[in-house]
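User: Before I run my own analysis I want an independent prediction to cross-check against. Here's the chain; please return only the structure tokens and, at the end, one sentence I can use as a sanity check.
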Amino acid sequence: MSTSTIIWIVVAIVVVLIVVGIIAFLARRNSADNQRAKARGLREQAAERSPSVRRREARAAETDANARKERAEAEEHAARAKRLEAEARGQEAEATSSRDEMRAQQARADEIDPDRPDRGRRGRRR
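Assistant: Structure tokens:
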């Protein structure tokens, strides 16, 4: 091979390498531009969804607040029910005691009543 042929081959190889380098550079730049565009689109979509997300968060916070309020009211009602149950037990005990006292008083009255029919002839009649 002659020197000029070798030079032309080397020049051709250098030109091919330069063209490949330019193509790679442009492809990378286009890829970066595409990624930037895609990122911009995703950010725009996220920005469009932001008000909807805020409304959902507000609705969730409101529902949570309502649940806490209802739970507090339920606990208050449960405590009131316990107090009323205790009061009812106390009143029931008082009523039982009063009934026992009344029965004892009736029994005592029956014991001393001379006109009681089941006392037979033992009692005095007026």
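Sanity check: Helices lie at 3-112.
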